[in-house]
Design a protein that fits this description.
Layout lengths: L4 H20 L20 H4 L6 H10 L2 E5 L5 E5 L2 H10 L4 H11 L8 H11 L5 H4 L3 H14 L1 H5 L7 E4 H18 L14 H13 L9 H4 L5 H10 L3 H25 L11 H11 L8 H32 L1 H14 L7 H9 L2 H13 L5 E5 L4 E10 L5 E7 L4 E5 H5 L2 H4 L17 H6 L3 E3 L2 E6 L7 H18 E5 L4 E4 L5 E4 L8 E6 L1
Parallel strand pairs: 2-7
Antiparallel strand pairs: 1-2, 3-13, 4-7, 5-6, 8-9, 10-13, 11-12
Helix pairs in contact: 8-10, 8-23, 10-16, 11-14, 11-16, 13-14, 14-16, 16-19, 16-23
Length: about 525
Amino acid sequence: MATNPLVVAATALALLFVFWRNRRARSSLANIPGPPAVSLWKGNLPQIFNIKGWDFPAYVTAKYGRVAKMRGLFGKEVVYASDPRVVRRVLMNFPPPPMVTESHNLLNGDGLLGSNGERHKKQRKMLNPLFAVKHLKSFPPLFFEVSQKVKLRDTYLDKLGISEEPRVLNMHYWFSRLTLELVSQASFERSLDPLDSEDSAHPYTIAVRRMLPAALPLSVLRITVPWLRYFGTKRFRRWLVHSLPWPALNEMGEIVDVIQRTAISTYEEKKAIDIDDPTRKDVLSVLLAANRRAAAEDRLTEYEVISQMGTITAAAHDTTPNALARLFWQLGKHQKIQDKLRDEIRQANLDVNGDAAQLYDGLMALPYLDAVIRETLRLDSPVSMLQRRANVDTTIPLWKPIIGVDGKEVTALNVAEGTDFILSLHPVHRDPEIWGEDALEFKPERWLSPLPDAVADAALPGVYSQLLPFGGGYKACIGYKYAELQMKVTLYTLLLAFKFEPSEDKIYWNMHMVATPSVEGVKGSQLPMKLTAL
């Protein structure tokens, strides 16, 4: 079908008008310096979202300071910030831009990540008790059982032959599968992966693993996402996703279908059981029971409840496997630290079949284990940036002044409603004025003594040790304690059984919204490591 030239002309004029308006708009950021745009219509976004652009945040901080002005789509101004006071104010007060929230909504429904405002508050209120330590203390035996299954009984030692000789495995692949199995059992009381061979993953596990790579080619659509819900019915949009001749879009449609079918079938199974049975501790059972008892105005809809399944698993899969990959990658490079951590674990000699609460407390009380995780999440946070949008006019004092375009010191940032922020976490976690001159070193011992006074003064709003891998503010990750438990159980279990060493492959990390490991010339996320049985 031929394209109507009038439609093309009208679209081009509309885009030119948006570009002209953004360029001509009177700006409260006129005195904030920043690098020139590298693209007429994408501004600095190719630099900010360059998957190999790890040097860019450090370059911006060194040249312009902890706050810089950049250009987004069609010339719109964007605040690029690593100033801790700006990070704190923005995360504590401003929501994600609509394109972020609506992207999650399209993929996973009306869950925590796909909602804002009063709906988000209502969901958070209902879910908070399910992610509290009191509830979490019932899960260590389950987590150890699943982790030991992948460690000893069948897979690594026997079926993969590591008991006979060392072998190189793609640990990112196994961490992804292990994480999703732990999440599915703890959250939905459903096993989705036997973890007994290299090719036994459930279709749901495969779909969730494919989601992030499949989303990257579709990033060009993100600007249109807030308006997509008005484009016909949901059924019509689904038909378009599967019918348009765009392989990346078709693949994403298949992924979403698998996730939604699994979520609905899990929900239907749960409706048929006695959800008030006190022995059922999984998140979905407890949520359904709490939702049934809640007042009508506080109750979640059936669709909101179903949406939590995709939300929880997608959020867990984005961060925890990549955090585990970073942990073992660092331990592989630092054998003395690996040995010291293994010694602490051996000496602890926790009773993994004993009382669940005591097991949880014992695991959380291991100081070097805690220090290794904190240091890895500080130096190599899996989340490299967060996006927010100002919903009011405000002024934000800076932690340290910057030099404005006029050559004078700027001590506060004047922000207009609608201003977009990209919070760059990498330089925040590596700032020598916050963490000390050794900020670029992998040094778990820093967490075993008092941190510099500047850490308290910076007052980062992270929910985990003033670190930001799980975000901060009212949109912080609700499941960060689950992620911490998964990481500690995995480290405890695997380090007792194996020595981890780097393979001969050259590993590089992709700076997506969540950093992933790769090997040059090999498709997909890869972290090959050499495992030797102990």
